[in-house]
Amino acid sequence: MQRRILGLILASFVSLSACDEVVYEVYEDIPTAQADQMMAKGWLPEWIPKDATNIHLRFDLDTNARSISFTHGNSYDERWPRLCAPARREIVSKPRLRTRLFPRSIQNMEGVQDCVDLFAVRDRHGSVHMWANSTGLVDKTNYP
What residues have CB less than 8 Å from 49, skipping those under 6 apart? Predict the structure, then answer.
């Protein structure tokens, strides 16, 4: 009897963990991401550089947590958008989701920016990484 109960509990746990709706996408460039409506749906910020390439995007449809990594061409303006400001270290959260390109301990890196609904930082190679553990700003309508 105990084995049967343990089996039911284990089966329930496995089925609940399968409900996690985390999506990982890789886009060659901004036009490709736009064609997939990633900006219109709110998963990518509108202010991402137009010459961004190798865009990695991981997001959770249930919690709206997201992480973004990309590289950019030489024309990228090294200044952050006006909506970003240096983040106070005590408010920078550890990312719940990470792209495959995220550096370790990203939340402890120098130069983390608070960009309203995202934290953002450049790594030593010039790639940009962004994350939000949840936000109500993402429009998920019509997402398959």
Answer: 30, 70, 72, 76, 77
